[in-house]
TrEMBL record:
A GO CC annotation given for this chain: cytoplasm
GO molecular function, one term: GTP cyclohydrolase I activity
Keywords, sorted A to Z: GTP-binding, Hydrolase, Metal-binding, Nucleotide-binding, One-carbon metabolism, Zinc
Region named Disordered: 1-27
Secretion signal span: none
Name this protein carries in UniProt: GTP cyclohydrolase 1
Organism encoding this protein: Haloactinomyces albus
Composition bias type Basic and acidic residues, residue spans: 12-27
Residue positions binding Zn(2+): C100, H103, C173
Listed EC numbers: 3.5.4.16
Any coiled-coil regions, as ranges: none
Recorded superkingdom: Bacteria
Assembly mode: Homopolymer.
Catalytic activity: GTP + H2O = 7,8-dihydroneopterin 3'-triphosphate + formate + H(+)
Length: 213
């Protein structure tokens, strides 16, 4: 298992998350022109009937696939509440669809996100863990950074005793091209706090992630 416990990588968000009056947006027209150009580069005729709408359609699709660039992760976790619970909270098998930033091809699989609340019992809604995974996935990504960004956002907002994130994914850039190892999967983990310092806490959480009991 690759352990992604380092800093959150090169995903500098300050470029994209501005103040409320200055919302950055996906440039649909520019993306559309780029896709048209790509089709031309491939020797296709972008004006033939089947392709006529394609540049605009692909631009809309990428707007959706990269939507996570324009959402502030801290806002997703803004609504926290106190609940007297100081044990593990774990959401398993969150489907993730992302794109590797090297080839802009999909990698997809599941994320498992767990944390132990701090002594005040600061927790967030379960759906927010899935929203967090989703928004970081909807960016040009590498799996290691996706994994640690989810963990670091939870550390920032919940100040929990520990966080564990495991992502298992198949990269189509390794399947449909290049080395052509379809079906191979990559597992990455990010552990923070008690899950980093205590091997037994980490093993317990990993067993729950693996078996669900
Ligand atoms: N660590 C990591 N590597 C990734 C991820 N997604 C894709 N890659 C790898 O990024 C690497 C890019 O390698 P390059 O040699 O620059 O590109 P390439 O010639 O297209 O490489 P091949 O895929 O081996 O054909 C490849 O080894 C991919 O498998 C990811 O999430 N994490
Ligand atoms: Zn790739």
């Amino acid at each position: 298992m690759t352990s992604a416990t380092g800093p959150s990588g090169s995903g500098d968000e300050s470029r994209l998350i501005h103040g409320a009056n200055e919302k950055p947006a996906f440039d649909h027209d520019r993306a559309e022109a780029a896709i048209r150009e790509l089709l031309c580069a491939a020797g296709e005729d972008p004006d033939r009937e089947g392709l006529r709408e394609t540049p605009s359609r692909v631009a809309r699709a990428y707007q959706e696939l990269f939507a996570g660039l324009y959402i502030d992760p801290d806002e997703v976790l803004d609504r926290t509440f106190d609940e007297a619970h100081e044990e593990l909270v774990l959401v398993r098998d969150i489907p993730v669809y992302s794109q590797c930033e090297h080839h802009l091809l999909p990698f997809h699989g599941t994320a498992h996100v767990g944390y132990i609340p701090n002594e005040h019992g600061r927790v967030t809604g379960l759906s927010k863990l899935a929203r967090l995974a989703d928004l970081y996935a909807k960016r040009p990504q590498v799996q290691e950074r996706l994994t640690s960004q989810i963990a670091d956002a939870l550390v920032r907002k919940l100040e929990p005793r520990g966080v564990i994130v495991v992502v298992e994914a198949e990269h189509l850039c390794m399947g449909m091209r290049g080395v052509r190892k379809a079906g191979s999967t990559t597992t990455t983990s990010a552990v923070r706090g008690i899950f980093r310092s205590s091997a037994s806490s980490r093993s317990e959480a990993l067993a729950l992630i693996r078996d669900g009991r």
